[in-house]
Amino acid sequence: MVVRRTLAEQIVDHVRENIAQNIYQPGRKLTTQSLAEELNVSMTPVREALKTLAALGFVELVANRGAVVASLDEKEAAHLLTVYSRLDMLAGELAAEFATVEDIDLLRGIIEQMMNAVARNDQITYFHENQDFHSALARISANPVLIDMHSNLNARLYPTRFRGLQENSMVWKEVALEHHAIVDAIQARDGELAGRLLRLHFRGAWKSLDRSASDSENGSDLATPIRV
Fold first, then answer.
1. Which are the contacts of 39, defined by CB distance < 8 A and separation ≥ 6?
2. pLDDT digits (tens, 9 = 90+) for 43-61
3. Is the pTM of this model over 0.90?
């Protein structure tokens, strides 16, 4: 079944992508009128989209200023990543219990697309396929509370994780290959192993976060990178 996305949802995707790619940088003012003109749409769906983006933490609604692109400091990113990574581990454990043959095929298909993106040095496609993989794990867990929390935290970390892809393709290949072992464990119904592999999978995220904190202490204004 094809699900049609509303105009407001499409605007959310557009703004979120521009924030992730640092086109809309932290602190930038996003007015309803400027976005409506940029996208050639009316202001009503833009207002709705900005409210959604504010609820997700992408922008802050400031009195008399409209929407401003939000920033995410290292401490807040660490708090979010702590919970998100645990949810991902739990999703893997539950996926080992509930995954169907179709689910396994879906996960392996996503990995194939990730590897193709690595071969093309295509950061954006790799990022989206990687997002799809972890979102699919959450859905396969069959736990609606986990799915909702995972989605919300993933949205908050979205720009930070995208910026973490400013590394070479060999790193992507290493991380992409780790997904194979995770799916192997799920297919073998070994939830404990799947969770352990996902915990190890996030070690790169913590290393990137530590590097960002070190850069900030040394006076760098680089954005916090998370690459998983």
1. 11, 14, 46
2. 999 999 999 999 888 899 9
3. no
